[in-house]
Amino acid sequence: MRPRQQHYNRGSSEYKQASKGIRKKCREAKEIWLNEQCEEIERHKTNEPGAMYRKIKEVTGFKGCSSTGCIKSKNGEVLMEKDKILERWTEYIGELFADYRGNKPEIRKAIEGPKILTSQVRGALQTMKRNEAAGPNEVVTEMIVVLEDFGIEKLTEVLNEVYDSGQIPDLSKSIFIALPKKTGAIECESHRTISLMGHVIKILLRILMMRARKSEEKLQEILDKVVEASEKKGLTINWRNIKEMRK
Questions:
Q1: On the chain, which terminus has fewer CB atoms closer than 10 Å, C or N?
Q2: Residue 23 structural domain
């Protein structure tokens, strides 16, 4: 800095040359500092992941957005009372996830189907992520895993009761968390909403999804055989009529 301070005329070649040298030194110092920070992050990578993530946030300058503790109503009024804020969030979430599809399909309950097997529950547990936030019932995957066969058998019994009756108890409830997208956000639309589902219902959904995929694969195999047999006999299939018959 001193060489540049000696030149009072900012338009002079000496001043520009001094500024250029300062910028070069700053770039070199920044590169050295970043390399040191990256080396420290690499050291924490294996044994201290928490320290690694803290260092990454420090280097990147990431700062979380804080909420103001108030929210705007639908008509623009700023709400300060806790109960009114909760009512506004309930209204907003209800509108956000409202079902406008018209007539909903009828769901047949208490119909017979293949039982959920312990092997399916075990397979679903293996695909579940660890260290995830618990849902409303505070039951996490790790609790079931640590119980080993006993936990899997009991969970299988619960899931079969839900599957056979078609009634999902409080397991289907979720906790919604609003995260502000920017500092000082007071509109609901300026928040990102995430939901914390119960781990038990997640396992049930994974099992049903795996079953649906297997059924789809079997159906595709049957359709492929039908098409192959039809082509050999010189027949054509009117897929449009088949779709209309299925409606």
A1: C
A2: 2-60
